[in-house]
Amino acid sequence: MQFDVTPNPQPVDAARRREILADPGFGTHFTDHTAVVDWSWDESGGHWHSARVEAYGPIQLDPAASVLHYAQEVFEGMKAYRHADGGIYTFRPQANAARLQRSARRLALPELDEATFLASLEQLLALDHAWVPDGDGAALYLRPFMYASEAFLGVRPAHEVSYRVIASPAGNYFGGELKPVRIWVSRDYTRAAPGGTGAAKTGGNYAGSLVAQQQAADNGCAQVLFLDPLHDNAVEELGGMNVFLVTSDGRLITPALTGTILEGITRESVIQLGRDRGLEVEERRITLDEWARGVEDGTITEAFACGTAAVITPIGELVDGDTVIASAGTGEVTTSIREELLGIQTGAVQDRHGWLHRLA
Ligand code: PLP
Ligand code: COI
């Protein structure tokens, strides 16, 4: 698909951009452009059209746009890194394209083909490449998303949809230096149920997690751990990350994909890197009791969270009401897998699985 490109007549000036890149934080600053593709329903089912790159700015949306009422929306999250060869690369974007399609199917939204998805990133980076930070694991966070823009209050899949990509320079998701995070175990709220939308990357899952996230913050915790009370409080995932446990005899354990958790691309990559280095990987149900007992008897030596925004972040403490399950600080396996994964993403470690894709 051909993108019409209209450069922003008033981009952020270079000095201000450099200031932002020196201390980007997470998700508060945005680049000069956005890529857009619209979709309209028609007799043959619907078609994508009006692909363009235009100035970043507020979207004109009818107050009756169905996304505002019924949350028909899906999104993705990925990162672009500047490599020593001057190129800008992203990590496994084909997997994000495929997941966006799966999420779209679950939310009765149209599927965007992989080629247009990749082109939207490339077209955006062609103009906004100066916004990719240099070094130290900093990256340009890419946020593709799709929403029902039709002005209609009936409850049915929208006939007008927009797909967009915005980009935001990003440092450490949890702020400052990498350090183990405290996690709040949510006993009052769950995130997903069988047949629900837990495996889709859709705004509603995050909206539903906010009150639990608020409880976490009130208790000095950075993220929420959601459980599955139907299955002996099996560990599901964090509000925005998957979870791994490391055992003293060299195994990696992560909750299996049961349809209620997000199929993380970082998760899948960690499984591969773990197997590459001879670790046994178990994808299975793991209860909170097993986690607590394992920490107590020394068989579970490390725990970490993983996702695009967080990369790999050690879990220091699990706060379950008055009980605190304390994992060892930043363990060796966590550190070493993080270094390898980040090394591949930033170009410092050989990309033996062909995971990188050059965007600009
Ligand atoms: N689980 C949830 C709920 C998420 O929001 C994310 C972040 O995207 C992940 C897991 C990790 O997914 P990925 O590694 O593809 O970023
Ligand atoms: C990501 O890691 O890309 C996410 O979407 C998670 C969110 C907590 C920022």
TrEMBL record:
This protein's cofactor list reads:
pyridoxal 5'-phosphate
Q: Identify the EC number(s).
A: 2.6.1.42
Q: Does the keyword Transferase apply?
A: yes
Tell me the superkingdom of the source: Bacteria
The record's GO molecular-function terms, alphabetically, read: branched-chain-amino-acid transaminase activity
Q: What's this protein's family per the entry?
A: Belongs to the class-IV pyridoxal-phosphate-dependent aminotransferase family.
For this protein, what reaction is catalysed?
Answer: L-leucine + 2-oxoglutarate = 4-methyl-2-oxopentanoate + L-glutamate; L-isoleucine + 2-oxoglutarate = (S)-3-methyl-2-oxopentanoate + L-glutamate; L-valine + 2-oxoglutarate = 3-methyl-2-oxobutanoate + L-glutamate
For the keyword Cell cycle, the answer is no
> Where does this protein come from, organism-wise?
Nesterenkonia aerolata
Its protein name is Branched-chain-amino-acid aminotransferase
Which keywords accompany this UniProt record? Amino-acid biosynthesis, Aminotransferase, Branched-chain amino acid biosynthesis, Pyridoxal phosphate, Transferase
